[in-house]
Write a sequence for this structure.
């Protein structure tokens, strides 16, 4: 299952890097305020949980990825603690804890005291990709009309909904393709091929318009990703692979905006040998 582990690690990394971005107000003003405020954020924390349930060749499996991370913009660095749990038939629950750090030069991934660092290529296109994503996302969030008022853990919010398209993701991927090594680009491209539409929900604080939470339903997309990955690994054609995904939902909650706890990258991580992610 090494190819799946590599895919989840890359997905986790993408998530980490991605974070480096009612009253009388109109929905447009709310989203504009959120974007402008996030551009000025110097640090932020987040928690995220992704639950996946699927069946393969008639056997049901469950996976859960939990993340607790922080990001800083000056200097650019990020930290994420991950717990990956897989409930495998015949083996029970298998849990792996990972630590991931990112600075301006390397990504450092640690598991059970073993570290690997991976050089970060030129990511000058990352800001353009981030801007492209939200430039296309905001109009989609406005297509469904007025946001819905909801309360999350005592916080009054406005919830926007949209559908992220495969075309939209392809545009973003094309902008960052030059910043990824051949193997990583191949894995990500393969995972995204034919994923279809992804429902997206986005909550903003009703008073401040700061982002509070996002939810992404990747159920149909994950089924396509798994079939593409398994087919690429030589386990059959996409049409013949018996995989059904019944749930693949990720919820991310922001916290400690501009008040995230600082950290230092462990010396053991800095001293690690270079190697690919998930080796």
């Amino acid at each position: 299952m090494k190819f799946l582990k590599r895919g989840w690690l890359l997905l986790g990394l993408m998530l980490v890097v991605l974070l480096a971005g009612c009253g009388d107000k109109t929905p447009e003003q709310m989203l504009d305020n959120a974007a402008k405020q996030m551009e000025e954020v110097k640090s932020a924390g987040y928690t995220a949980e992704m639950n996946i349930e699927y069946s393969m060749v008639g056997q049901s499996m469950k996976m859960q990825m939990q993340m607790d991370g922080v990001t800083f913009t000056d200097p650019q660095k990020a930290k994420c603690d991950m717990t990956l749990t897989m409930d495998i038939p015949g083996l029970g629950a298998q849990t792996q804890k990972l630590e991931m750090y990112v600075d301006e030069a390397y990504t450092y991934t640690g598991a059970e005291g073993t570290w690997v660092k991976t050089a970060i290529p030129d990511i000058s296109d990352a800001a353009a990709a981030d801007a492209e994503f939200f430039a296309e996302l905001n109009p989609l969030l406005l297509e469904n009309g007025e946001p819905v008022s909801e309360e999350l853990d005592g916080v009054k919010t406005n919830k926007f909904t949209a559908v992220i398209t495969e075309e939209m993701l392809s545009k973003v991927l094309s902008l960052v393709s030059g910043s990824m090594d051949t193997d990583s680009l191949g894995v990500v491209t393969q995972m995204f091929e034919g994923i279809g539409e992804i429902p997206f929900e986005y909550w903003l604080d009703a008073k401040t318009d700061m982002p509070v939470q996002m939810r992404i339903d990747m159920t149909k997309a994950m089924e396509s990703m798994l079939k593409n990955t398994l087919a690429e690994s030589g386990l059959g054609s996409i049409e013949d692979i018996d995989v059904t995904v019944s749930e693949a939902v990720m919820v991310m909650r922001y916290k400690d905006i501009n008040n995230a706890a600082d950290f230092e990258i462990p010396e053991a991580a800095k001293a690690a040998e270079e190697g690919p992610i998930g080796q």
Summary: Confidence is low (pLDDT under 50) at residues 1-5, 17-23.
